[in-house]
Structures are given as structure tokens and as C-alpha cells.
């Protein structure tokens, strides 16, 4: 064996080992023999890092599928090959290695970068006991890395496996020095100490090398059998079990009653929704979303059930057939500061604007349609159109969009199409004064063609939804949202929405106006019992006509929406979500009795 080969073999140690070697003080204080086999040292870590509120509202689509951010992943044996390698380790050692690798995965967002001067490490001072060792490593070996924030974090505790991985990391660098005929940098004393370190950590190094081999084999297998080189498949399935209690609404328009019998006709039901998302990227920064969906969830507002829009669920409708639900494309511009959305189907207002509510998801959020977000500024004619999200600076984002009804857009007949049919034009400004507070001001102008009117987004009273019947209607809508993360386990938020509706009769008739108001206060309790859980309370007033040109159509009473839910996150993939919401004075009249709606959702994500 040549002397150069011997040196390369001896120089398996690296970053942390070299730091001990190059400082006599370090070697004196931390000798390899002082570390006992099996001894570990792990620094306590928080369960997960809280997301900035800027990221909370960004919603690829209601009920987004795939693992939820902030949820604790199921820890599985990612490196189990099914066979025991020759360099196998004990179960205890294997568990420690698994923990190390999991810690490494959680630290991917803090990848280290090479530094050329110890002065680049802001938390390393000349008075530190290891300063000269670090300085020598930088100047002599070029074998030191810092974190992206310019720190070294020298006081962070480490495990034996982190130490072993650090030793391995510098092998290539030292081999480069040897191969470049700079072996004089490595002294006989260095080699002796490195050899002792390698002998001390022989078991750990062997286990790490074995696991790297397994990883390479499994990565090759995944690449050979992947679904697509450009497309990822993820999905969600939700089972709904529910019922309502209390007599159905008997009075829905002035002068009722409107149904013959007010008794509760609703029976317990079992509904479902299944989604398959195909997310395709051509550049690594863009996304083409194609979604297939099948659902069969009852619309509880039907006359034969509760007879009020106030009881509608967060997702309802369908006949069980698979349909194309989403088809839109998103790509970055202006060095990533802007995101352009171009949609053919189901590009919605809550895609191109940001709901700040923690309960906006149809899968794991509010059980009710109203409880998700402000229905007058985040719902409307939508589906086909163009939008831009632009990050003006670190604190301000502007969202612009024009959306036409996906039913009207492909129809070129008179009164339909992109501009003559129902459509919405929206602008939103999102402002984050601090990392835990987000505010948003929303404005949109909507046009509803004759027979396609839904001013309140299918929530609130029937009168608020269609204040002028089927006549063409325009509405100017202003909304304000806020969410404040007071602590890691408590958030306070809500919204206020106003819609000024205007009648656009096709023939002779009076020009009518109406003002529709709604609001809500939300209390969210993330990770209340365990990481990934979410508790919530929503209290508000569903859309109500507070002013109408015809005085007798103004709604004098106020029905209150009270909702409570809890998401039990059993694993990364399964959640149980019981919920209940209560509607007092349905249709904003005390002639109707209180209605209680209960649901129990089981959510599967994959």
C-alpha cells in the first residue's frame, strides 16, 4: 500500500475531528477517549417552527391535498432495506441513527455554506476558547462551514452520529490536499490523532456508509419506478357523516310561511369527496394543476331539508361521478417576486386572493360554508381568467385578478363569454406589520347575469344572496381580514365584509339598491393536545340585508352563527374532525327556530 493511499485511508476524519486536532486546547478538553461508547447528547428542539402569517393564507386551492404544513410527520424507517448488512449495528444504535437522520431532514432549510474567514462567523469571537482552532481550519484546510445566517452555533450540543458524519464530511477536502502534493500540511501528529478518532468511531462510520449505500439503491429504484419525471400525484379522501337538529326554516321571504310543514325532515347521512391532484412542473418553479374530483355531499339548504343557505357545508353537491375540477397554470415572473395564474377551470377568487383564516380548508378547516372566510369578497363568478400575485416588499403583497364564470367563458353567445357573462374583478393588499400579524384589504366588483345571481356566495339569507331576484346584478364588495398569532397555540382573527348591490333590470323598472353585511371572529388553537391538532371557534353573522330600497325587505332580526371544531391529527395522513355549528334565528327572523348542524369528517391524505 502506497504512503498516499495510507494517508487517504487514515484521513477519513474531517470537520469536527480536524477542529480537535488543530487546537491543542481542544484536544486537551475533548479527547476521543473521554467519549464513552453509546453516549449521546441531544439538544432539545421545538416541535416545529411557526410559519409566517404571510404563508398561512396562500392557498393553492380550497382543501389542498398532500401533507399539511406544520403537521408532525410519521416517523418511518426510511432506510430499512429489508436485509441486514454485514456492518449491522445494534437496535439501540439503529434508533440513534434514525434520530440523527430525522434531525438532518428537519435541518434541510439551514444548509451550511463554506466560509473563507473566521470573521464571517458572527457568533465566533477572538476570546472564544476554540477561536484559534476554527481559524486554523479555515486558513489551513478550508474545511469549515457556517449557517446561512452567518453563525457557527458552536455551543449547540451534538450526538456521536453527528460527530461521525462531520468527520466523514472533510475526507474529500483532505484527499484533495494530498493529491495536490500539499501533504506537508498534514503532520505525523495529525495522522496519529485522526487514526485514534477513526478507531473510536469505527462502528458509527461503518453504519453511516452502509446506510448511504442503501439510500443510493433506494433512490435508484424510486427513479426507475416514479410516476412521472415532471408530475407528482397526491390526493385526499373525505368521509362525511352528519345530521341536523331543529325544525327547518319556515319563513324565507316576506310574508311566509314558505313551507307547509316546519318539522325537521333531515335524516342522518353519509357523504364523501375524493380528489386526485396531478401537479406538473416544467421548470421546477411553475405548476400546472390538474384535479379530478368525485363527491356526493348533500346541500342542506334544499327546501326539503333545512330550507336555509345558512346550513350549507364547506363543500357540498356532486353526484358521485369523477369530473375535471381544476385546470390552471402558475409561473413566476420578475425573479420570483410575481406569480402569474392562468386558469381554464376552477381558478377561484380564494386562489388569487389570500384568505387569512386558519379554517379556510374544506378538508380540515371549517365544517360550514360561511366559516371558511368572507363570502362576499372571496366568492363570486369565477373559474376562468388571469391573475397576478406580486410581493412588493417583505411586508406587502398585492393580488390582482379577473375571473369569468367557467360556465359562461366557453360560451360565445350573446350575454355570455369572457366579458359579457358573469365575472369578477378583484384587488387585494396583504400587509404584515410583524411576523405574527397579517392584515388584508379586499375589493372586487362582480357582475351576475340574469339567472346566475349569488351576491352572498351561497351563504346567509336567501334575500341576501338574491336581493333583486333573478335580475342581473352588480355588486361592489369591500372586505377587511386580520389574523394575529398571539402565541404558538393561540390565534385571533376574523373579517368584516360589505356588499353594495345594484339592480340592473333588462326592461323598465325601478333602480334598486341593497347593502349586505357579514362578519366573523375566529379563535384558533393549533397543536392544542398534540402537534398537528387544530381547535377552533367561529362566531359571526352570516350575510344580512341591512339596507334595501324597498324598506319592507330590510332584515330587522340578526341570526348568529356559532361553530366549534377540533381536528385530531392521528398521523401525517389521517385526521378525525368532529364539528358542530348552530344557527340562531335562521334567515334573520325570529319566526324560525334554531337549527343545529353536526358533522364528523375523516380525512385521508396521500
How do the helices and strands line up, and which of them pair or pack?
Elements: H1 3-10, H2 15-21, H3 24-29, H4 91-106, E1 113-114, H5 131-141, E2 145-146, H6 160-169, H7 171-179, H8 188-200, H9 202-225, E3 231-245, E4 269-280, E5 287-296, E6 323-333, E7 338-347, H10 349-352, E8 383-391, E9 396-405, H11 417-420, E10 423-434, E11 437-448, H12 462-465, E12 473-487, E13 490-503, E14 513-526, E15 534-548, E16 561-569, E17 574-583, E18 595-605
Antiparallel strand pairs: 1-2, 3-4, 3-18, 4-5, 5-6, 6-7, 7-8, 8-9, 9-10, 10-11, 11-12, 12-13, 13-14, 14-15, 15-16, 16-17, 17-18
Helix pairs in contact: 2-5, 2-6
Instruction: Note poorly predicted spans.
Output: 1-91, 100-112
Q: What fraction strand? A: 25-35%
Share of helical residues? 10-25%
- Helix and strand content put the structural class at alpha+beta
* C-alpha end-to-end distance: 53 Å
Chain-averaged pLDDT: 79
Q: How many distinct helices?
A: 12
Structural commentary:
With 606 residues, this protein is α+β, with helices and mostly antiparallel strands. The chain is built from twelve helices and 18 strands. The strands form two sheets. A 16-stranded antiparallel β-barrel has the order 3-4-5-6-7-8-9-10-11-12-13-14-15-16-17-18. Strands 1-2 form a two-stranded antiparallel sheet. The protein starts with a helix and ends with a strand.
Amino acid at each position: 500500500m502506497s504512503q498516499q493511499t495510507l494517508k487517504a485511508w487514515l484521513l477519513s476524519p474531517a470537520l469536527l475531528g480536524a477542529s480537535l486536532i488543530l487546537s491543542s486546547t481542544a484536544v486537551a478538553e475533548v479527547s476521543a477517549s473521554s467519549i464513552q461508547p453509546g453516549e449521546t447528547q441531544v439538544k432539545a428542539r421545538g416541535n416545529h417552527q411557526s410559519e409566517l402569517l404571510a404563508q398561512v393564507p396562500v392557498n393553492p386551492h380550497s382543501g389542498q391535498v398532500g401533507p399539511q404544513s406544520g403537521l408532525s410527520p410519521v416517523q418511518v424507517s426510511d432506510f430499512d432495506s429489508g436485509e441486514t448488512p454485514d456492518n449491522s449495528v445494534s437496535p439501540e444504535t439503529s434508533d440513534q441513527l434514525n434520530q440523527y437522520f430525522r434531525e438532518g431532514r428537519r435541518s434541510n432549510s439551514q444548509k451550511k455554506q463554506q466560509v473563507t474567514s473566521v470573521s464571517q462567523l458572527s457568533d465566533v469571537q477572538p476570546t472564544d476558547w476554540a477561536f484559534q482552532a476554527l481559524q486554523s481550519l479555515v486558513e489551513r484546510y478550508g474545511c469549515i462551514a457556517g449557517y446561512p445566517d452567518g453563525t457557527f452555533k458552536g455551543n449547540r450540543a451534538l450526538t456521536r452520529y453527528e460527530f461521525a458524519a462531520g468527520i466523514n464530511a472533510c475526507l474529500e477536502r483532505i484527499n484533495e490536499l494530498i493529491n495536490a502534493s500539499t501533504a506537508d500540511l498534514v503532520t505525523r501528529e495529525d495522522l496519529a490523532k485522526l487514526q485514534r478518532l477513526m478507531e473510536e468511531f469505527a462502528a458509527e462510520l461503518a453504519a453511516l456508509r452502509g446506510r448511504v449505500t442503501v439510500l443510493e439503491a433506494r433512490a435508484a429504484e424510486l427513479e426507475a419506478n416514479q410516476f412521472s419525471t415532471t408530475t407528482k400525484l397526491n390526493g385526499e379522501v373525505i368521509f362525511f357523516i352528519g345530521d341536523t337538529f331543529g325544525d327547518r326554516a319556515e319563513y324565507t321571504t316576506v310574508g311566509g310561511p314558505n313551507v307547509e310543514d316546519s318539522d325537521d325532515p333531515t335524516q342522518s347521512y353519509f357523504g364523501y369527496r375524493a380528489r386526485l391532484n396531478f401537479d406538473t412542473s416544467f421548470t421546477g418553479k411553475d405548476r400546472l394543476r390538474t384535479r379530478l374530483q368525485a363527491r356526493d355531499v348533500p346541500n342542506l339548504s334544499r327546501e326539503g331539508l333545512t330550507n336555509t343557505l345558512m346550513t350549507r357545508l364547506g363543500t357540498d353537491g356532486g353526484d358521485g361521478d369523477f369530473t375535471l375540477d381544476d385546470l390552471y397554470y402558475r409561473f413566476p415572473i420578475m425573479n420570483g417576486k410575481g406569480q402569474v395564474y392562468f386558469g381554464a377551470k376552477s381558478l377561484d377568487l380564494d386562489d388569487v386572493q389570500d384568505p387569512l383564516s386558519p379554517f379556510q380548508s374544506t378538508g380540515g378547516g371549517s365544517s360550514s360554508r360561511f366559516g371558511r372566510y368572507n363570502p362576499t369578497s372571496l366568492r363570486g363568478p369565477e373559474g376562468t381568467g388571469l391573475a397576478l400575485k406580486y410581493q412588493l416588499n417583505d411586508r406587502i403583497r398585492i393580488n390582482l385578478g379577473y375571473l369569468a364564470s367557467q360556465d359562461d367563458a366557453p360560451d360565445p353567445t350573446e350575454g355570455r363569454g369572457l366579458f359579457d357573462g358573469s365575472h369578477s374583478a378583484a384587488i387585494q393588499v396583504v400587509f404584515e406589520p410583524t411576523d405574527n400579524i397579517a392584515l388584508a384589504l379586499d375589493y372586487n366588483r362582480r357582475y351576475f347575469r340574469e339567472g346566475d345571481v349569488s351576491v352572498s356566495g351561497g351563504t346567509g339569507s336567501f334575500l341576501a344572496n338574491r336581493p333583486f331576484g333573478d335580475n342581473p346584478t352588480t355588486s361592489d364588495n369591500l372586505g377587511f381580514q386580520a389574523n394575529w398569532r398571539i402565541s404558538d397555540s393561540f390565534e385571533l382573527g376574523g373579517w368584516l365584509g360589505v356588499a353594495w348591490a345594484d339592480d340592473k333590470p333588462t326592461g323598465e323598472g325601478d333602480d334598486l339598491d341593497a347593502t349586505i353585511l357579514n362578519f366573523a371572529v375566529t379563535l384558533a388553537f393549533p397543536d392544542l393536545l398534540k402537534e398537528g391538532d387544530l381547535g377552533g371557534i367561529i362566531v359571526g353573522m352570516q350575510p344580512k340585508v341591512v339596507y334595501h330600497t324597498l324598506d319592507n325587505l330590510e332584515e330587522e332580526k340578526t341570526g348568529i352563527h356559532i361553530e366549534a371544531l377540533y381536528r385530531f391529527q392521528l398521523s401525517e395522513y389521517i385526521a378525525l374532525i368532529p364539528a358542530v355549528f348552530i344557527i340562531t334565528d335562521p334567515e334573520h327572523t325570529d319566526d324560525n327556530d334554531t337549527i343545529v348542524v353536526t358533522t364528523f369528517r375523516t380525512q385521508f391524505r396521500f
